[in-house]
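S.,

Sequence below, as promised.
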Amino acid sequence: MTHSNHLGTHLDGEIHFHTPGKDIASLEMDYLVHEAAIVDLSDICGDYDVYTSKMVEDRVEVCEGDILIIHTGYHHFGWDMPTANEIRYMVMHPGPDREFAEWAKAKKLRWIGVDCGSADHPMNTIIRDWMPRQARQAEKVFQKKYGMPLAEFFDDSKYQLMHLEMFPFGIVHAECIGGELDLILNRRVTIGMFPWRFVDGESCISRCVAMVDDAEYEELMAKKAALPKTKFGDAFEPLHVESINKLSQANLS
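The prediction came back faster than expected:
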């Protein structure tokens, strides 16, 4: 079997963008498993939006040294969903600016997880050049909402800042998180990320797990029973897509 290291839910290691950094095998269990803040931004961010540290802290308590999981809601556009749309999932999701990155470093976050294609804003990556139609859409959104051209907002000094400016500080990220994330939003919980012990690995497919006690597990399974399911049986909340679509229509109008 041959596959990309960046397939499905995966953890980027430091050496993905920081050559002298740690490989996947060097990440310690205390780093991978810890208390986490899980935040839902699907009520405030639509296509091409920029999220901020204030948006996060308005919704959940984030402590120094936490893991932070960001639910943009764009996992609803992943391939296993009835609302699947790979362009929105990979190219149109919201992302952060440098303000967020500096806040994350000040908080000494362990690692960050996102439920979309990248922890960077897609228009702050090579995707901007690869997808000119979507870049033109984003240009309109940035002019309308942020009062400046896309190339000025994300200039060369900020290129892929969530990779290039974070990995040297030991703050890596997991991308393409999904599963039943919708069940545990805007709260704190213990999270574990379990990649292979991949020597010299710059990234690795991984399992992301929330750890709750038995009583809460039963409550979550009752909540799951009332929600629609993906073709693999994962529960999801359709209201997130409605919110994202409404915000996106306003952005692009």
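The mean pLDDT is 96.

Coffee later?
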